[in-house]
Batch of 3 targets.
Target 1
Amino acid sequence: MKILANDGISKAGLIALEDAGYEVITTKVAQEQVANYINTNDVAVILVRSATKVRKDIIDACPGLKIIGRGGVGMDNIDVEYAREKGIHVINTPASSSDSVAELVFAHLFSGVRFLYDSNRQMPLEGDTNFEGLKKAYANGTELRGKTLGIIGFGRIGRSVARMALGLGMRVVATDKFVDEAEVRVDFYNGQFINVAIKTEPVEDILKEADFISLHVPAQKEGYVIGKAEFETMKDGVGIVNASRGGIIDEVALLAALDSGKVSFAGLDVFEDEPKPAVQVLMHPKVSLTPHIGAATLEAQDRIGTELAEQICSLLKP
Ligand code: NAD
């Protein structure tokens, strides 16, 4: 049976599938050729990340398709319900990248409290002529330890962020529309662990209490989660990170809050206007920036490949 991994697959996933007897094709087929390729090559499974779209047209044109697999979480590029109505399995790997996203959150937080986002811009320009000036400019950093981290959206990634924050000695407060309490397991390198139960609180309390806020909610149907009104209730000098979805934070309100000093820095991995983020956001001196790479680690890609392989083997087992 043939599997087309059109947006690539990790070596671990590839080996697991080949060991199970599947032929995995890693040729990148152009979007408009995908349906034709599936039919002429008898492909039973198509695996995608976010680049390839599997819409009604492909689903209708390819009656031999048994599984559509998304390596990662969001399935905006797949007509999921339609495929399922046609009897096609649609699978994804929601848990594989949580720790990678959580670590990126801390990359932004550490960058924020020690001004790395700005230092990395200024050192190449002035590092050799104004070393002492820059040293002074970035002198008043702060530690994360002992501060309060507010987590909005206490699902897989939110809990992974909580785990790391607890490990650093931070106080964690969390809010979630549907989760009242969650047990967060903090693992140590030597196999020891502790469980910490965290009760969620109303979002208003989190906004007031937190020194830093990290957002981990899915795309919302009803507007922003953080807009002008929410910024106003936050602590002065709060730091905020968004590695969830563009459109969760109102970027215009964020820029105003950064300019007024209400927010001391923002770490953004996702943007309202991806893949062409607003230039005012990209150029803002108090923003730490990454181009939607939360899940993009070798370890996460390995776990994604392996998790897809396991699901495929279990769904197709005779
Ligand atoms: P999840 O479903 O496990 O958790 C999301 C949580 O948010 C749920 O518990 C839900 O009840 C809660 N929620 C929904 N709306 C809310 C609201 N308005 N207020 C408070 N809580 C709300 O999802 P996850 O795996 O933790 O992923 C979280 C987000 O991270 C998603 O948007 C996902 O697309 C994004 N993500 C980003 C990257 C990246 O590369 N930056 C990678 C993976 C996932």
Target 2
Amino acid sequence: MLDGWVPWPEAAAERYRAEGYWAGRPLDRLLRDRAGSDPGRIALVDADGGRWTYAELDERADRTAAGLRRLGIGAGDRVVVQLPNTDVFVVLFFALLRAGAVPVLTLPAHRESELVHVAETAGATALAVPDLLDGHDHRALARAVRKAVPSVEHVLVAGDPAEFTALADVDADPVPLPAPDPGDVAVLLLSGGTTGKPKLIPRTHDDYTYNVRASAEVCGFDESTVYLVVLPTAHNFALACPGLLGTLMAGGTVVLSPTPSPEDAFALIEREKVTVTAVVPPIALLWLDAVEWEDADLSSLALLQVGGSKLGAEPAARVEPALGCALQQVFGMAEGLLNYTRLDDPGELVTGTQGRPLSPADEIRVVDEDGHDVLPGETGELLTRGPYTLRGYYRAPEHNARTFTDDGYYRTGDLVRVLPSGHLVVEGRAKDQINRGGDKISAEELENHLLAHPAVHDAAVVGMPDETMGERTCAYLVPRAQPAPTQRELAAFLTDRGVAAYKLPDRVEVVDAFPRTSVGKIDKKALGRRIAERLRAEAGHGTSGPLRAEAGSGN
Ligand code: OOB
């Protein structure tokens, strides 16, 4: 068994098994089963028109698993995976599971700062990257990771490997491999993070398989499902809610889009007669506008899942008339708990709530600042535990002590209220995180990077309201001396430190001192109000709308 993770207490585990939530099967079996029952059905289609049947995908996974074992990658090894939405990701994911290794899933946007930390925390022995992606050389990134994290022995490259191993050469005749223990960790997901460094989320074969199966049921996935992956495959939403894994489990077809742009996605929806896809709200907004000028035939689309950040009731109501498909809101987290509006929910619940818990075994509490349950219908912090919600982050005992209650509830940091129907409305956030249209940015992590700049005396990162993204990132700075670093200088500095582009501050505000709370902490609520007021004033004067704030005040 992998060490450093927190299993469910035996009584809970027994209950989840006895009640059938945990089926005792390894996660990769969902592919094996379909390869047995529907070998000739198309499982996977890529943007270039590459197509693989269930049997072909299954065999490729077996061959790659054998190739991994030959390299010495096997039981319990952690392998950091950073790959775009291609067949290579899908094959490698299943191959790693079959080899007994644990994929550690990172986003293509992550850079040295994130990858080094993740590889180090995971104690990774291998890293899989593309050669080039959007003009960035990921082999150079791999070199930096290897230098910083000596446990990383192997670098596997999709494409031209340079001095490393080509993924195409990780191939051998299939060999029988021992099945992993279904109670063990299958995959490590990345958390959005509220602390200085991102955290790793252990998901077991049992819990993740249940996550996928129950999601596929609630979303009505079956053999006729054609699911378009537009978010990164490494994101829990696109991977398992029900996502690509749910589609394969149901015997449907997965279509991979390289980007979420309307040009790419709409063309694939038309070409492959896509029936369902999942997006974050800014993409939904973009698509709602794009149908005006894109003339692709979207008539096959039956369901649009939207989640990752809050979708406003107004755009929610536009989905059905504009795109001609039903809307489903999804309020989920890589840590576990998933809330879905149901396909037969009345319209006002679909547009006005973020859904209700997936599982009858999900336990939720809504508490005030002292940890006491609020009255029904009142807003408070959401706590949860259940058959697919983690009991602790990987190798993070101190953080776990703060983030979980003594009886195992995960403190989500989300402020919600619960309607009599059981549906949740997300009202805000108690955690120190910015949700930039679904991309999560830990304020503390970004502040630490900013504090490393020689001209920065102190830094406080807050969200600022934004019509499209929900919010964007504003960094308040107290400089050491004048002139203070500009937004551009800071962006270059952070990029140089290997910080992912989506974490760069959208705006920088320079102040002499921070407002303080009565106990002397930086008063971030006051800073949040200050920037919101400032944006309102600027919009009033017509100098800069929230969107144009991205260019920033320049200083
Ligand atoms: C999804 O997962 P993560 O891990 O990137 O982020 C989780 C956090 C939640 O705690 C919440 O703060 C926010 O993202 N969130 C939403 C939301 N969905 C997620 N806030 C408001 N409304 C929503 N619908 O984002 C994720 C994972 C699986 C499925 C869907 C989303």
Target 3
Amino acid sequence: MALRKIATLGHPILRQRARELSLEELLAPETQRFIDDLVETMRDANGAGLAATQVYEPLRICAVEVSNNPRYPYKPRVPLTVLINPVLTFLTDERFDNYEGCLSVPNLRGVVPRATVLRLLAWDREGNPIDREVRGLTAGTFQHEVDHLDGVLFVDRVQDTRTLTTWADFERFHMADFVARARALVERMGG
Ligand code: NI
């Protein structure tokens, strides 16, 4: 396994639409090694998720994992989930104002409205079908990662640019209010 470099805001790879994989491509040893690298890189950087485009591979692969994350201490746990060719369908009109950050957008956070219930269709890394409902704050995490595969960054979805903040000022001025709202959402939605 190897750590990959993470592309940052301004690099054209982050604006590319990643392409679908065939089952044969997914099962190729090279792709399986890439997935190992993606997961290792996500964990090394304390990311809650990482998309292939962020490590310079324009393929529809992303990973999500949350376990006692120091960058996002309020997020509910999510076991390691690798998604291949994911498709999200929103199951509600409700949106939660989520304060997001991104490994490709260093030292910036901002509020993004995210659907609170969605249906996730994808393959796992072995090509087995995934079909599940994702709720609450976790639904926002999946939307953020799948956006990456379409060349969309969270800053594109910030509606009120006055919410943009450095991480230090997030903790100083916005975190208490946000964590209270996030905890209430997790309690209500179970995720
Ligand atoms: Ni990101």
